[in-house]
C-alpha cells in the first residue's frame, strides 16, 4: 500500500510538470508578441488591452514610458512557471489600450482606477502589483488607496517618494529654472511640441531605449536637463551599437506600438503632475504599508537623481523586504538582466 501511494504521488507530480510544460509551450520565444494570450476589457470607461497568462495568485505588471506591456515579456513565462497568474496591461494611452483626448483623463485617479477596474473585471480579490518607471507611482498609489486589493508591492527603477511640499512646476523652477535650465518633464508640458519632435518613431525608440540602458556610451546616455534653446531632439543620440536585448524584432514591435498609438497619451501622464499633487493632499507623508520589493539597475540614472528617496526608503516603506541594485543594468533592468529580475520577483512572491 505504501508503494502504491509513492507511485501515485510520483504520477501526480509528473502530471503537474506535464501540465505546466503544456500550458507554457506557446511562450517559447517571449520576443514574439503573438505567443501571448491577449485580451480586451471595458475598464474604467476605456477599452484596455492586456495579457493574461497562468493560474494561481495574481501579479499585475505595470510598465512605464516609453514602454508597453511588451517590456515585461521576459518576466511573464518565468512567473507563470513559478505558479502565478500574470496580468500585464497596456496602460491608458499606450499600445492597443484606448487613449482619451482629454488631458485630465490621465491623472492619477484615472490611472489607479484602471488597475482597480481591471482587477474587478477579472474578479481578482487580491494581487501583488509591480510598477516600473511611471508604472511605479501608479502601483504604490493603488496600494495606498486600495490596501484591500494590493497585498504586496514591487517597485522597479523608481524609489518611493511621498508627495512633496510644493507642486512639480514650483520645484522645477527652483531647482532648474533659476539656473536657466529646463527639466525634461517640464519640457513635456506643452501639448504638441514633443509629439512633433517624436515623429520619427524608429529613431526615438532606438535612441531612447539605448540611452536608458547600461550599454549606452557616455555621450548616448539619457540627460534629464535641457540647456537654453535645446529640444528633445538634442537629447537623443543615434547609438553606435544597439544593446544586445534590443534585437530587430524587439525594436520593430516597440516602433509599431508607438506608431499606432502615438505619443500624446503617454505624454499626457506628465501633463498631470501638478494636478496629481493637487488631488492627493490626503497622501502627504503617507508610508507604504504592504510588503515591498525594490530593485533597479546599478547604473539607473533615476537612482542617481532620486538618491535621497532611495536612501530613506526604509523609513517610508517600513515593510521593505529588499532593495537591490542589479549589476550591468540601468533603467531597463527587466530587459537587460531578466534572469536576475525574475529570480528576485519569484523569491518575493514565494515569501508572500
CATH homologous superfamily, by name?
Alpha/Beta hydrolase fold, catalytic domain
Label the overall shape. globular
Between the first and last Cα atoms, what is the distance in angstroms? 37 Å
Name the helicity range. Answer: 40-55%
Q: How many individual β-strands?
A: 10
Sheet-strand content, in percent, reads: 15-25%
Annotation field: number of helices: 17
Question: How would you characterize this protein structure?
Answer:
The protein has 352 residues and is of the alpha/beta class. The chain has a single domain, classed as Alpha/Beta hydrolase fold, catalytic domain (Rossmann fold). It has 17 helices and 10 strands. The strands form 2 sheets. An 8-stranded mixed sheet has the order 1-2-4-3-5-6-9-10. It has a two-stranded antiparallel sheet with strand order 7-8. Helix 3 packs across helix 4 and helix 8 (201-211) crosses helix 10 (248-261). The longest helix is centred in the N-terminal third of the chain and has 23 residues, at 2-24. It is globular. Residues 1-23 have low confidence and may be disordered.
Protein traits:
single chain; 352 residues; alpha/beta; Rossmann fold; two-stranded antiparallel sheet; 17 helices; 41% helix
Layout of secondary structure:
Elements: H1 2-24, E1 38-43, E2 46-53, E3 58-62, H2 76-81, E4 85-89, H3 108-121, E5 127-132, H4 135-145, E6 150-156, H5 168-175, E7 182-183, H6 184-187, H7 193-197, H8 201-211, E8 225-226, H9 232-235, H10 248-261, H11 264-270, H12 273-279, E9 292-297, H13 301-305, H14 307-311, H15 313-316, E10 320-326, H16 333-336, H17 338-351
Parallel strand pairs: 3-4, 3-5, 5-6, 6-9, 9-10
Antiparallel strand pairs: 1-2, 2-4, 7-8
Helix pairs in contact: 3-4, 8-10
Amino acid at each position: 500500500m505504501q508503494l502504491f501511494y509513492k507511485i501515485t504521488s510520483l504520477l501526480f507530480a509528473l502530471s503537474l510538470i506535464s501540465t505546466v510544460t503544456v500550458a507554457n509551450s506557446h511562450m517559447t520565444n517571449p520576443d514574439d508578441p503573438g505567443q501571448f494570450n491577449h485580451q480586451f476589457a471595458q475598464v474604467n470607461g476605456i477599452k484596455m488591452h492586456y495579457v493574461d497568462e497562468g493560474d494561481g495568485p495574481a501579479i499585475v505588471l505595470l510598465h512605464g514610458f516609453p514602454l508597453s506591456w511588451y517590456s515585461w515579456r521576459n518576466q511573464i513565462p518565468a512567473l507563470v512557471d513559478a505558479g502565478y497568474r500574470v496580468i500585464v496591461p497596456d496602460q491608458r494611452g499606450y499600445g492597443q489600450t484606448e487613449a482619451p483626448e482629454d488631458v485630465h483623463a490621465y491623472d492619477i485617479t484615472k490611472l489607479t482606477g484602471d488597475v482597480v477596474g481591471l482587477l474587478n473585471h477579472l474578479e481578482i480579490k487580491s494581487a501583488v502589483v509591480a510598477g516600473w518607471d511611471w508604472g511605479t507611482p501608479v502601483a504604490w498609489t493603488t496600494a495606498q488607496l486600495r490596501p484591500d486589493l494590493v497585498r504586496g508591492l514591487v517597485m522597479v527603477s523608481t524609489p518611493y517618494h511621498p508627495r512633496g511640499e510644493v507642486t512639480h512646476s514650483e520645484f522645477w523652477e527652483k531647482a532648474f529654472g533659476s539656473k536657466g535650465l529646463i527639466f525634461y518633464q517640464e519640457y513635456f508640458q506643452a501639448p504638441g511640441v514633443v509629439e512633433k519632435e517624436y515623429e520619427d518613431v524608429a529613431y526615438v525608440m532606438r535612441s531612447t531605449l539605448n540611452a536608458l540602458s547600461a550599454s549606452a556610451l557616455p555621450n548616448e546616455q539619457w540627460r534629464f536637463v535641457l540647456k537654453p534653446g535645446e529640444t528633445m531632439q538634442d537629447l537623443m543620440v543615434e547609438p553606435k551599437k544597439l544593446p544586445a536585448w534590443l534585437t530587430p524584432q524587439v525594436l520593430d514591435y516597440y516602433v509599431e506600438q508607438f506608431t499606432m498609438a502615438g505619443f500624446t497619451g503617454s505624454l499626457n501622464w506628465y501633463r498631470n503632475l501638478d494636478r496629481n499633487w493637487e488631488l492627493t493632499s490626503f497622501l502627504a507623508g503617507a508610508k507604504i504599508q504592504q510588503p515591498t520589493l525594490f530593485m533597479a539597475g546599478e547604473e539607473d540614472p533615476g537612482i542617481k537623481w532620486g538618491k535621497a528617496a532611495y536612501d530613506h526608503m526604509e523609513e517610508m516603506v517600513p515593510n521593505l523586504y529588499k532593495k537591490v541594485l542589479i549589476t550591468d543594468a540601468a533603467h531597463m533592468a527587466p530587459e537587460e538582466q531578466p534572469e536576475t529580475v525574475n529570480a528576485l520577483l519569484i523569491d518575493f512572491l514565494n515569501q508572500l
